[in-house]
Fold these 4 entries.
Entry 1:
Amino acid sequence: MAEETLRAFDAVVARANPPVWVVTVVAGEQRAGCLVGFASQVSIEPRQFLVGLSTANHTFDIAGGAKYLAVHLLDGADTALAQLFGGETGTDLDKFDHCEWTPGPHGLPILTGAAGWFTGAIIERIEFGDHVGHLLTPTAASAPPEDRSGLHYRSVAEIEPGHEAG
């Protein structure tokens, strides 16, 4: 594909300014979490949400042995959690030692600084190039207050990833 087309595609997607999320997971004694830009509700009834995890990411490795994920909506001004979960890698650092969290449903780490969150059962995994989609059905949730809005791509675009792209 032509480089010009790739640059134009990237510009279109970036201009859409999609929301970003922090996904956390636990499998056995291991826990992990990462900043995710590829995620969206994909069905109204039944409610389903798709999270794309990079195959190069430590969280992806832990999620392979998990049955559930927690998906966190960060407040629009909360770039500190985004920096921690997007700019560090769990292979080098226990991110949960550097933020406030509590054990939640299914033993998942729930970030207390998140505006809102939900947990979901992984009902299917689908390969998408350098990411694997984890199709979730919600199992528990905590709604954000009306005065909090989500964090979007433009607010985190300058974060250097904690790992190489897949």
Note: The longest strand covers residues 116-128.
Entry 2:
Amino acid sequence: MPADLRVAAFTQGLDVPSARFRVRQYVSALAERGVALDEYPAAFGSYPPPGLLERLQWLPRAVIERRRTVAHTTADVALVQREMVSTLATAESVWRGPMLFDVDDAVWLHQRLGGADRIARRSNAVICGNAFIAEHFAPFARTVILPTAVDTGRYVPGPRAASPVLCWSGSSSGLPYLEALAPQLRQLMQAIPDATLRVISNAPPRLEGVPRVEYVRWSPETEITALQGAWCGLMPMPDTPWTRGKCSYKMLTYMACAVPAVVSPWGMNAEVLAQGDGAVGARDHEWADVLTSLLRDPARIAPMGQAGREIVQRSYAVDTLAGRLAQTLREVAAEGAA
């Protein structure tokens, strides 16, 4: 379909998960709907390097690069994926046309000088990954809730392992949530002697005293195969303002692969749990009992997995959500043309 709307997407970098899942994976689906999306990732990254000297050198380079890129870009509407420079409002003000601000975390909790809120005020609308995020930004701009979509053509069911495999997948920043479960996992491993815990991440976990832990280094090639063999996927997290901003993407990828999810039942997780039988909630001291009950009843695994995949296909698939994103982009572009 010929494009009649041009979108400039300013993202935080090529390797940033939010850029992959909330922008890049929509390119083809939007093109089918007449929307041409061009991505402009941050050349120096939107997150500071670890050392103080490196940070002092990085910040002006990052801001100047973003301002120059924005100033030399033309499109009908801009899609700003989180802050162009993390925690701050910087080059967003350079854009003179209609603009959407896309947020998939509780970024306001770490903002400096009101950065995220200032970007929201400048925007025609804020695309929010869940209702908790939308509640915060509603005083500043019109909000549109758009969950983080799952590519259900890529995350597909596969052969399940012969013996019980629990799986946790995610970046190393989330490993403390898994590591806090160590006492519950030790109890589970005693109850289910043939169970294995598979951890897919960019760094190995520290699970003191937990036997039979298999570490799989994350890559696009290994992730899905490692997920597909699991009997259940884990998404533990404490109930905090930061975790309530999470968009349940880990949970949804398990379910897309027909792997039942066992999750902490708060934030957006609670909304997904309410939609069917593809997942089960476990509170802080319930994890060992919930997991033991599930693994001892393997006949539950396949029906739960199928129910979970149906939920994702119905409400969270890229093809399902691309139409809503295209409509929002067109509405904002029309506001700017009016």
Note: The mean pLDDT is 95.
Entry 3:
Amino acid sequence: MDGNLETVCRICGLDVGDLRFDVHGLPLFVICECCGGESGYEDTTLAAVRHYRESWIADGAPWFDPKARPPDWKLSRHLSNVPPAWR
């Protein structure tokens, strides 16, 4: 996959391979099944990403789609997947 194409959620680090932005950087409005953040809405600025992430974690980091949560899921390991520019 092209290195400029984003598949990782900027908020929580989930990567299921779905493009979140197209080749031109335009959002595809994908809703993350982990944190519930929508690409192009909650993740357009670093401040917005950090605010959403902090609120999500403060609420206990619940999965938006609980059925998608892997049994061995660990928040710290998951957050380590967040792209460095969005930490």
Note: The first helix runs from residue 46 to 58.
Entry 4:
Amino acid sequence: MPTFSAYDGTELAYHEKGEGEPLLCVPGGPMRASAYLGDLGGLTAHRRLILLDLRGTGDSAAPEDPATYRCDRLVDDVEALREHLGLDEVDLLGHSASGNIATLYAARHPKRVRTLVLVAPSTHSVGLTVTDEDHREAAALRAGEPWYPAAEAALKEIAAGRVTAEAWDALAPLAYGRWDAEAQAHRAASATEKNAEAAAVFYGEGAFDPSGTRAALTALNAPVLVLAGEWDSGPNPAHAEEFAGLFPRGVRQVQPRGGHFPWLDDPEWFVRRVAGFLAQD
């Protein structure tokens, strides 16, 4: 397992899978170990995945200062990894919460980004808000599923301020296009893969400057793919379209019947779209 030293001396780990040109992959969660990304549906047939374990997760050490778990400060860990790998430019992929990290990296280091792939990305970094109504509308698309009544009831409980572990469990199927054994195992693993202390700091005060980030992104010349699942709410396809429009060369793709982990829902579709995007000149 290769490691490198971050700007503050914290030893960080990454995992390599596949062959070919490197693709730096930053996991979401927030603050979930990179193991949940797997091989991104078989993307390893096209790229060498460099899967970063963010500080305090997976095989990476915890920092001395917990404040460094804040999203904007994690950007420096991505830059340290680029320097460690000796790459002038990077192809960068962020999923879910780490869509914020990847976006902030592109805003801060636009000349270091060759291509940017944002998979079901969180949009806090640019000030786009996912509302309760967005969640309800996305959930309603799944009304024919046997687990839907429990999920609908859980959404109402959470909207009323009654947040329980049982309610979150009832919502779990909404994150997946197929609530099968693979999806259920993927969900079950999340309990041991996530650093709750770090996650509580990730979105801390001062982490984001949406107007400043939006302005900085206008200097990014790299192609950007924002990939959303048809059935996801964060972001839903409309938010993903708006997000893509913030980049000079941004495009949106919507995966049919996809959820928040689209590489599990239809690996072939996901790999074909992402690999094709990365292969462009």
Note: The chain has a mean pLDDT of 96.
